[in-house]
Amino acid sequence: MKWTFVNDDFFEEEKAVVRTSDLALQRGYGVFDFFRTKNNKPLFLEEYLDRFFNSAREMFIILPLGREQLKNAIAGLMERNNIPESGIRITATGGYSPDGYSPVQGNIIIQQQPLAQPSKEKFEMGIKIMTYEYMRDLPAVKSINYVMGVWLQKQLKEKRLDDVLYFRNDIVTEFPRSNVFIVTHQGRLLTPGKNVLAGITRKKVLELAPDILPTGTTDISLAELKNAAEAFTTSTTKRILPIVEIDGVEIGDGKPGKITRLLYGQFVKLEDKV
Amino acid sequence: MKWTFVNDDFFEEEKAVVRTSDLALQRGYGVFDFFRTKNNKPLFLEEYLDRFFNSAREMFIILPLGREQLKNAIAGLMERNNIPESGIRITATGGYSPDGYSPVQGNIIIQQQPLAQPSKEKFEMGIKIMTYEYMRDLPAVKSINYVMGVWLQKQLKEKRLDDVLYFRNDIVTEFPRSNVFIVTHQGRLLTPGKNVLAGITRKKVLELAPDILPTGTTDISLAELKNAAEAFTTSTTKRILPIVEIDGVEIGDGKPGKITRLLYGQFVKLEDKV
């Protein structure tokens, strides 16, 4: 049996519910975060919690739990479920709003599911992507709004592509659920700094990379993206995945690049240390 | 006691729930529509249902009910609740998605609440608004995503304004929950045609207006908006409300305009005929 935490108690997954008047159902209004566990230990938990509380604050969501209570709830859920390799999602909604529009005290939901590491095969294959002009509503916030990301799934399936990278006014930003990096032919590692979610894996890569090559946070145009020597995406679920094709243009020689491989190795080592 | 319909049965409002794995809670993914009843009769129901089914289709949401079943559910809810002057909201969510991302068969929720007519005093006062650069994700669709609309409430309160009108690249589009019209100094009634939700009240005004003045659907710039002789907003809840101030600029003489008043009278007559 799998358990879900809602507000102040644990429920069997099928019985974990919220009322239909919640602002998440009425107005898609809520925030969340998502981290992995490895051998029953959360990876980089404090950093995910920092971001979660920041998202809630930025969206004026009133949380029913403080940080310590939330950590206790997470620990309690992990103990009950005992899923050593997992993903844990914390959601905070806008709550049971009497007028169906103004946030009140929110509901907190914590869900856990088994989550295997992305395989080495997946890394070796890399991903093929397309670009699409769009910007999330409040890019610095991890809101639950994925209307565009979910809506674009049909196009991706039809085109047999793995993911979609957003841009705005010719400047690359982020994937619906992950960040982007490029390695230039001049040997610099670059990632967009504006209008993106501050990914935790992205942050770790930005901390690891300067030992390997010059690293910068800057605007990247679509042309610079497609002309990159290497490109990869980072996320909690994907860790680091090479991008081998963008809008039909092969990146590098269509295989995972040398720097991408180095950073991947470093990141796996970092996780092993936790 | 107030009842809510969920999928195939009626529940007391407090017991109407969906599971936390629903895509509306996970990804803000769902559509809805909202119509009024008058003397226990739905106003313009077929047109609202047309739009609802179109929104669901555009967002690949798989409905558990057909149109006749939905109408029966609405009729059943109205009979149980017996709220003659009400608003009825139909929501369809992305459903209990196993992967938390791909739409599956959705959940249908029908909620009813008392809703008084907007008062004549409110009409006479008009509304003061600000403008804001933003476009909804899929403007032709009535999705549940109101992240920006809800988020901007705080600014509106601080500035003591009634609403916010979106624009994109200098072209006016719509309010978070209503449409916009202007009357030009040349005596034409105009409303934006692109990147807006096709409001039912907007449609009725477009049908009524040509008997009174030349009417067009066209791009309107911010300058044209602020220079208008009259401006008003239309929605199911608001019907027709004069806009008397935009970004601190008084519209006309800061009072409801003559054409706005005429159209308001015509629209109320139309409702009385239903």
Explain the layout of strands and helices.
The structure is a homodimer of 274-residue chains.
Chain A: E1 3-6, E2 9-12, E3 17-19, H1 23-27, E4 30-38, E5 41-42, H2 45-58, H3 67-81, E6 86-93, E7 108-114, H4 120-125, E8 127-133, H5 147-151, H6 153-158, E9 163-168, E10 171-172, E11 179-183, E12 189-191, H7 200-208, E13 215-217, H8 222-226, E14 230-235, E15 239-246, E16 249-250, H9 258-273
Parallel strand pairs in A: 8-9, 8-15, 12-13
Antiparallel strand pairs in A: 1-2, 1-7, 4-5, 4-6, 6-7, 9-10, 11-12, 11-14, 14-15, 15-16
Overall description:
- 2 copies of one chain form a homodimer.
- The first copy, chain A, is α+β, with helices and mostly antiparallel strands and 274 residues long.
- Helices cover 30% and strands 29% of the residues of chain A.
- Chain A contains 9 helices and 16 strands.
- The first copy, chain A, has helices at 23-27, 45-58, 67-81, 120-125, 147-151, 153-158, 200-208, 222-226, 258-273, and strands at 3-6, 9-12, 17-19, 30-38, 41-42, 86-93, 108-114, 127-133, 163-168, 171-172, 179-183, 189-191, 215-217, 230-235, 239-246, 249-250.
- The two termini of chain A are 28 Å apart.
- The model of chain A has no long low-confidence stretch (mean pLDDT 97).
- β3 of chain A pairs antiparallel with β3 (17-19) of chain B, so a sheet runs across the interface.
